[in-house]
Amino acid sequence: MSEIKEPYRIIISGGGTGGHIYPAIAIANAFKERFEDAEILFVGAEGKMEMQKVPEAGYKIEGLWISGLQRRLTLDNLSFPFKVWSSLLRSRKIMKRFKPHAVVGVGGYASGPLLRVAVKRNVPAVIQEQNSYAGLTNKLLAKKVRKVCVAYPNMEQFFPAEKVKLTGNPVRKDIADLAGKKEKALDHFGFNAAQPVLMVLGGSLGARTLNDSMIENMQKLIDAKVQVIWQSGRFYFEEMKQKLAQFEGTESIRLFEFLKEMDLAYASADVVISRAGALSVSELSIAGKPTVFVPSPNVAEDHQTKNAKAMVDNGAAVLVKDVDARKVLINEALALINDNDRKARLSENIKALAKPNAANEIVDEIVELIA
């Protein structure tokens, strides 16, 4: 297959949020499953969550001094050119020392510098684009890299058609295999099998609108006897904990800063409320969960709305606008919980859009480029 005799060396760069980090780890795991002696190095942004999550997954990571441009004038913006220069310099040093056979960029601040250096050194480079709308950095880099692995059809409008490969987004292996986990999941969360379970996901950092919608409609959920798994995100956890304590009858409300046992959370849920980040959409598709998406308005090119509409247009999800959420979101979720036919239809349709072999297909593309 390959003329390379030594173990493969792969750099995976990017991060910033779980939506970039977990697909990257899934690619690394798939690569290691196929090539046990492969060396994999992650490169992330200093101070971002990848610097913690990647070592927890068993991989080495190095950090770049890099951040994004803010929309308003800040000290961070003034230092941005120096950060770019510093990150390119450090990327060159990492590339020279590690000598990778290929570099994979998964998005996030650290992805750009590594891919630029890889391209200049003629090292095979791959972009893994998670969203249905490509960002500016990836559109520019796509002209130079060898392959662009995408999660949605019709991405040729952003990238050179001959480089595009539709693979889907890689997800954690445990989420792809939920069969038979329902009983264990309910037991894990201390739930009653006779009552419905609603899961609320605001992303790894949290979502103000979802959290406020929960608090403002908490009495409705209590009265409906709905059991809840609620990931508030680390920015909002303490505030939501204090507000939740003001209600009586919250014994079946489980509030988390961050969910580690995502497979059990998905397995227990009858209906999910979620932001529409690419990873969430992919995981919910593979899990086959009836979902109400509330796209974040605070993202580049409004890509979460585009992600959600790709599901809604296929009859695979419900969409509630962020601006309407506080008034209608919980009512929509409760209506869905009580409509078994609609739940079954949404579950079937969203599962039909899943791409469970994404990580292995991306590994195929990397190996083909190296060979």
UniProtKB/TrEMBL annotation:
<feature type="domain" description="Glycosyltransferase family 28 N-terminal">
    <location>
        <begin position="10"/>
        <end position="149"/>
    </location>
</feature>
<keyword id="KW-0133">Cell shape</keyword>
<dbReference type="GO" id="GO:0071555">
    <property type="term" value="P:cell wall organization"/>
</dbReference>
<dbReference type="Pfam" id="PF04101">
    <property type="entry name" value="Glyco_tran_28_C"/>
</dbReference>
<keyword id="KW-0961">Cell wall biogenesis/degradation</keyword>
<keyword id="KW-0808">Transferase</keyword>
<dbReference type="GO" id="GO:0008360">
    <property type="term" value="P:regulation of cell shape"/>
</dbReference>
<comment type="similarity">
    <text>Belongs to the glycosyltransferase 28 family. MurG subfamily.</text>
</comment>
<feature type="binding site">
    <location>
        <begin position="278"/>
        <end position="283"/>
    </location>
    <ligand>
        <name>UDP-N-acetyl-alpha-D-glucosamine</name>
    </ligand>
</feature>
<comment type="pathway">
    <text>Cell wall biogenesis; peptidoglycan biosynthesis.</text>
</comment>
<protein>
    <recommendedName>
        <fullName>UDP-N-acetylglucosamine--N-acetylmuramyl-(pentapeptide) pyrophosphoryl-undecaprenol N-acetylglucosamine transferase</fullName>
        <ecNumber>2.4.1.227</ecNumber>
    </recommendedName>
</protein>
<feature type="domain" description="Glycosyl transferase family 28 C-terminal">
    <location>
        <begin position="197"/>
        <end position="361"/>
    </location>
</feature>
<dbReference type="GO" id="GO:0009252">
    <property type="term" value="P:peptidoglycan biosynthetic process"/>
</dbReference>
<keyword id="KW-1003">Cell membrane</keyword>
<dbReference type="GO" id="GO:0051991">
    <property type="term" value="F:UDP-N-acetyl-D-glucosamine:N-acetylmuramoyl-L-alanyl-D-glutamyl-meso-2,6-diaminopimelyl-D-alanyl-D-alanine-diphosphoundecaprenol 4-beta-N-acetylglucosaminlytransferase activity"/>
</dbReference>
<dbReference type="InterPro" id="IPR007235">
    <property type="entry name" value="Glyco_trans_28_C"/>
</dbReference>
<feature type="binding site">
    <location>
        <begin position="17"/>
        <end position="19"/>
    </location>
    <ligand>
        <name>UDP-N-acetyl-alpha-D-glucosamine</name>
    </ligand>
</feature>
<keyword id="KW-0472">Membrane</keyword>
<keyword id="KW-0328">Glycosyltransferase</keyword>
<keyword id="KW-0573">Peptidoglycan synthesis</keyword>
<dbReference type="GO" id="GO:0051301">
    <property type="term" value="P:cell division"/>
</dbReference>
<dbReference type="InterPro" id="IPR004276">
    <property type="entry name" value="GlycoTrans_28_N"/>
</dbReference>
<dbReference type="GO" id="GO:0050511">
    <property type="term" value="F:undecaprenyldiphospho-muramoylpentapeptide beta-N-acetylglucosaminyltransferase activity"/>
</dbReference>
<feature type="binding site">
    <location>
        <position position="204"/>
    </location>
    <ligand>
        <name>UDP-N-acetyl-alpha-D-glucosamine</name>
    </ligand>
</feature>
<keyword id="KW-0132">Cell division</keyword>
<keyword id="KW-0131">Cell cycle</keyword>
<dbReference type="Pfam" id="PF03033">
    <property type="entry name" value="Glyco_transf_28"/>
</dbReference>
<comment type="function">
    <text>Cell wall formation. Catalyzes the transfer of a GlcNAc subunit on undecaprenyl-pyrophosphoryl-MurNAc-pentapeptide (lipid intermediate I) to form undecaprenyl-pyrophosphoryl-MurNAc-(pentapeptide)GlcNAc (lipid intermediate II).</text>
</comment>
<feature type="binding site">
    <location>
        <position position="172"/>
    </location>
    <ligand>
        <name>UDP-N-acetyl-alpha-D-glucosamine</name>
    </ligand>
</feature>
<feature type="binding site">
    <location>
        <position position="131"/>
    </location>
    <ligand>
        <name>UDP-N-acetyl-alpha-D-glucosamine</name>
    </ligand>
</feature>
<dbReference type="GO" id="GO:0005975">
    <property type="term" value="P:carbohydrate metabolic process"/>
</dbReference>
<feature type="binding site">
    <location>
        <position position="304"/>
    </location>
    <ligand>
        <name>UDP-N-acetyl-alpha-D-glucosamine</name>
    </ligand>
</feature>
<dbReference type="GO" id="GO:0005886">
    <property type="term" value="C:plasma membrane"/>
</dbReference>
<dbReference type="InterPro" id="IPR006009">
    <property type="entry name" value="GlcNAc_MurG"/>
</dbReference>
